Amino acid sequence: MAASIEQARREVAALRPKDAGSNRLEIASNELDAIVSTTERASFDILQSAERLMDIGNRLRQSGGRDDICDAMEAEVMSIFTACSFQDLTGQRTSKVVNALRYVEQRVSAMLSIWNLEGVEGVQAAADTRPDAHLLGGPRSDGVNQDDVDALMSGATIIQTPTPAPAAETAKPAPAAARPVPLDQSAIDNLFD
């Protein structure tokens, strides 16, 4: 029984990172919070654009536009409204996961404190050997470069540019980042052939 207790102490101590900035549970919670925030912001922008399209359709109808086209446009806008309801549901579910992670983090901290493991040295967390471990860092929290988005929206295409490899020694190289390149009209036409 003493060996089991000692093994449990070592496992719990391994959960506590050497430096405060590498707490896996806190990082996971923060990343999930960022996902909720980003999808909420994107959904809001999509819904605002859909509302503007609805207004444009109404003005088109009032100015004598064809009813069949106005009806089709209105139906598509309503589909956008319906599709964006995902954000509220996923946001609620993700918030529940974040709360669960924070609860586990609090319980682990309490166990470390009870067992006086705050200052335990020499206990290493097991290396993450999953094949996708190098992907788990996710995107930077500061989001996509607005210049890249603007270039893409103004008719640019994306080409691959190399990015630095992940910091972990066992990590596979990350996919290359994309950079926009302007398209001419024939290149755009070829997309639809």
UniProtKB/TrEMBL annotation:
The organism of origin for this protein: Aerophototrophica crusticola
Top-level taxon of origin: Bacteria
Low complexity compositional bias, start-end: 166-182
Example GO molecular function: catalytic activity
Protein name: Protein phosphatase CheZ
Span list, region Disordered: 163-193
Any one biological process term the GO annotation gives: regulation of chemotaxis
A Gene Ontology term for the protein's cellular component: bacterial-type flagellum
Any Pfam family: CheZ
